[in-house]
Structures are given as structure tokens and as C-alpha cells.
Amino acid sequence: MKTLTIRGIDEKLESAIRMESKKEQKSMNQTVLKLLRKSVGLSDHELFPQYDDLDALAGSWSQKDETEFERNTRQFEHIDEELWS
Description:
Helices cover 44% and strands 0% of the residues.
């Protein structure tokens, strides 16, 4: 992807973009890209799609599940010094 520098953004425009960014909970860059795409008729394609397909998993582990996971992955915390010499 290319990088583009835009000069001459006044405080009113910057403030409006910042407010839109906060409202959409997106970065300033994502917001400017969205607004540019929309202004030239390319708004059908979402540049930064939002995924929620794993939301059902968030917070679904029990304490037992977490304890078992921690126990089963503890071995990955150890470094074998011979491999890194």
C-alpha cells in the first residue's frame, strides 16, 4: 500500500475527523481512508473489516479450563540453553 501525505488540514477538519474516529472507535488513519473511499465512490469495499467470529469464545473458560491450560503449556516457558548456544 502507498503512503500519502495531506497538507493544509485546518483545525476544524482535524477536529471533525477526530470526532468521527472516536465515534467509530477507529484510528485517524482508518477514518480518513474510509472517508476518502466513500467520497470517490469506493465505499462498497470495507478496508478494515471487523471480525466477531471468535466472540463466543471470549470469557467462556472455567477456572478448571484455565488451570489445565496453564499446566499443559508451562513447558513452553522454559528455554533450552543448548539450543541457543
